[in-house]
Amino acid sequence: MQTKPVRIGTRGSALALAQAHETRDRIQAAHGDAAPEIEIVVIKTTGDAILDRPLSEAGGKGLFTKEIEEALLDKRIDLAVHSAKDMPTVLPDGLALTAFLPREDVRDAFISPKATTLMELPEGAVVGSSSLRRQSLIKRLRPDIEVVTFRGNVQSRLKKLEDGVVDATLLANAGLRRLGMAHVITSLIELEDFLPAVGQGAITIESRIEDQETLALLAPIHDADTAVALGAERAFLYELDGSCRTPIAGHATLVDGMMSFKGMILKTDGSEVHEIVREGPVVDALAIGSECGRILKERGGPDFFAHL
Length: 308
Description:
5-stranded mixed beta sheet, single chain, Double Stranded RNA Binding Domain, about 300 residues, 10 helices, D-Maltodextrin-Binding Protein, domain 2, 13 strands, alpha/beta
């Protein structure tokens, strides 16, 4: 039985803390009276400190994980809780994504006081988003709309919307639900129109590969289906060398031992899009994700992401 407290590392945003508390609660529920004491350790990351420019200009993925991973490697924390979509496809030596929690709804939420849906916004409306994927998909569906970069936590973005800085914004439904803020959603955008980011809706836990005690602690809360789906999505992203600097979308679903995968790459103005759909046995999930990434990379050609 573990006697020393287990330390969970996390960012300090309201959403990150909600995810850390969910992880703690699941561990305690799974282990009952044998559950160890759990401490939540807030770690400020580079991404949290950069609010004056798009993350795509500051280095993309890894900005929300670097300092937390350093704490893991230094053994200042025992495990780290992340939004799966923030995770680079290559992790530091000695670390791995060792557990996934059951995935939430992956759809994007449309929030606006001026229209019920994105398609109903008036011509020339202004939409705020910090995501290149969302910006590109908005421009694909509504070339007439002005899209502006919109940084900050959920609360600050909603305040800007309330103040009329923009006419609408898009946020992940999963994050709003975890914050108990589903009531702010005007409508949900269906996946046929708006493919999610790789990993959207999923919480992942990172730990040291050799830390068997932590691996045993996490085993009962690990969701195997989410891990398989995310494995395919991350393999797809890896082949495309994807980061926050590249508009990429991908989503895998599992039904009766089969996996369906859809992937997409876009130019930031939405003017060029390449899509792919594949299906196969769950045991081939990683291979399917990788194949889809290679095919889209070939279709796009060497200059597809040159504008970035």
